[in-house]
Amino acid sequence: MNRNTTDPVDGVDRRSVLAAGAAGLSLSLSGCIDSVRSVVTGDGDDQLSLSIVTVPRDDNRETVQIARHLESNLQAVGIDADLTVRSRAEFLEMTLIDHDFDLYVGRHPADFDPDFLYEALHSTYADESGWQNPFGLTVRGIDRLLEEQRQADGEERETKMESLLEEIAIEKPFEPICRPTEYRVASNRFEGWGDSHLATRRGYLGLEPDDDVERLDALVTDARPSRNVNPLSATVRERGTIIDLLYDSLSTTVETEDGTVEVEPWLASDVSWESTDDEDVETTTATVTLREDCTFHETESVPAEPVTPEDVEFTYDFLEDTSYTLAANPSPSPRYRGHVSAVDEIDTEYGEDFQFRMTFDAGRAVAERALTVPILPKHVWLEEVNDRVGSIDDFSAPQGRWGIVTSSSIEPIGSGPYQFESQSERDHLTLERFDDHFTLAEDDDTLDKDVHLEPTVDEIRFTVDPGSVSSIERVASGGADLTESMLEAFSLADIPEDDEIERYDDDSWTFYHLGFNTRRMPCGDFRFRQAVAQLIDKEWVIDEVFFDEAHAKPLATPVTDEWVPEHLEWDSEDDDFVTRFLGSNGEPNVTLARDMFEDIGYRYDEAAGRLRHY
């Protein structure tokens, strides 16, 4: 029974399943066994096999430990589980581009607003590349709730989000495991670390360096920025810190004292909002005033050009179709897909020269998130498209794969506070201060002078250091200023008690998760996904992989705390299948687990010691 095409659950009350708990799950689903048998292919005596893919230990020790924990428990109950490790770039291509996996364990980039679930799960994106629905989920009920939460704000949106999270908990296209605390260490050569989140552009701005310091040296464990900083590629990056330094967005995120995130104008000097409700469809309109005298970076081959409303309009159109209508079929960007899909229209003829109007088919919260995409220079990207298309008669632009979104040769020209200077593969990426950035304008009365946001050092160099422990040692010895990449939990004990460095803790939007490819059986059956998810002991993961709940928190839902309804909060004592592990101390209760799989259409072969398809 492939759950990907219908809304009802073959006679099963979905909310009663959510409330039934794991112990009652087999009884409530037993009537569906015949349906399960009818869709499982094979000769009726096939061994149940699954592949799990993740990154190697050197890339992220925590993901591979979680994956091995799952592999061991699947094998213990009689499933032929096989773990494959791939480099980070290969892993992302395998899962996000090729969709060539059964299960994977990774860290989802998520976002500050739960609307990231729209692109993560809506069926519109099931065949696209990128973090757009890599699970291939196509459930109409979830589509409807994703759309409804987009239209709502305030308490109404919280109610819609609660229903959506309940449906996700049942369908389980992925299983959220835990949300890590983001740890970094920094030298005392700078003051101001931690005033803003160190995974955002603001974390690098307004710092006060010692008198003789002209360059900030940051360490990254990921070598990909040293090869490619194409802002559109799905496999180049998972976090946007470097892109946010190179490219400005109309608005930017600001973390408040209570830990929530607000969106404030950035490249826009002002954004005013209006909302209208027409036949139960909410439309939101933003009147945007763009800062005047802002320019894109200048290079030897590309002169400086002003940032105009036409560049903004081009950016949103281009992200919707990176072939810019030249291909027979649109080729959306693998990044920012959900952001730009909320935009209905951009009117550059409205108002004064640097004023325009944007209309959104969404509530204000979703519309604000749409303003955080990087603004691209039209003169660079349109010329690049035209050069690549040339005189090709039957031009096609395979989504996620065509050169405009994968190339490392496109000059990374933005208007951000830092501009590209140089890079050396597997060694470094160096950015230099853009002296014409608006944050350096002394006469700009739209900036809050009490909040220092200017680039204060001549250069920022991101140097590749593949290990958390070695990165800590380099900062402690004075060889670097910051570990830009999140430190893995095992390395925290290696942080010396030294007045020369300090540890900084930030909340994370990202979360570790188990992803299912719902395009393939048996992972196309939501009950099978539920069963597999119950073989991950999240408390064991916290204790053994992260060593302490201070370093990571177990999750039942993928959104941040303020969006989690009380009945979906993590509770280790709750028998609800949303959170329950069938076992204890990391070891599965083999009898209960086998019974659970047998109740949804499998049988245990005592002689072979394996679960098989009926």
From TrEMBL:
BP GO terms, sorted: peptide transport
A GO MF term: peptide transmembrane transporter activity
Highest taxon of source: Archaea
Keywords: Signal, Transport
InterPro entries per record: SBP_5 (IPR039424), SBP_5_dom (IPR000914)
Solute-binding protein family domain location: 262-605
Keyword Ribonucleoprotein (UniProt): no
Cited Pfam families: SBP_bac_5
Family classification: Belongs to the bacterial solute-binding protein 5 family.
This protein's name: Family 5 extracellular solute-binding protein
Taxonomy of the source species: Archaea, Methanobacteriati, Methanobacteriota, Stenosarchaea group, Halobacteria
